[in-house]
Amino acid sequence: MKRAMSAEAKAARAKQIMDAAADMLLSTDYRHLKMSSIAKAVGISNGLIFKYFKTKETLFLSLLWREYEKRLDYLEAETEKTAFRDFSDVQELLLSELEHLLYQNPVYIKLESMRSIILEKNADTQLLLKMKEKFYGRVNAWSRKFSGSGIISQGEILDIFFAEIGIITGCYLQNAILNDARNIISQDRDNMPEISETDFREEILNRMKYYLQGYKQNMDN
């Protein structure tokens, strides 16, 4: 009789699958990623991978939760060591964290942009509910710590945090649409206008800066 895997061994295998999925996502469009390819990269059968993750969306949603945890760990650590004096310190921390996210964690950026329109559509509903409960619990705990400075309320920092997610998603999807358009244009250069290239990461940072400036003005009024 085949010996059952321990909980630790199962967790290690699930991590191995998520690590492989993260690596492949950086070089392959999500639409073209196959569970069979991820299974092959890990060295397991096509059937076994579905014992760990019921659907492709469930796998990448689990990966997104792992990236959420990394992000919130970083935010909590930066918040605890920052002595807030005014809103400019709040703005500096948020923009610094966003820049870190954009340039050091491309997996999070790609997954966040797909969360509501792709990943949540065919994910395991129990996992999705559990993930959202954990996510909002951690975000609320962090925002309470942030509001302890007295400079900004918990509701205000939550407004900013979720607006930032919207900016990330919007800019990334806009960039993806433009890239598709450029690919079409490259095949018919004689009859199509040229579309200039932009760095979507800089676009996200700039939009967030303008958003924070506007938010500060509204707070002062």
Automatic annotation (TrEMBL):
The keyword Chaperone does not apply. Residues 34-53 bind DNA. Keywords: DNA-binding, Transcription, Transcription regulation. Gene3D superfamilies: Tetracycline Repressor, domain 2. The keyword DNA-binding applies. It holds the Pfam family TetR_N. Signal peptide: none annotated. GO terms for molecular function: DNA-binding transcription factor activity; transcription cis-regulatory region binding. Residues 11-71 form the HTH tetR-type domain. PROSITE patterns: HTH_TETR_2. Coiled coil: none annotated. This is TetR/AcrR family transcriptional regulator. It comes from Candidatus Fimisoma avicola.
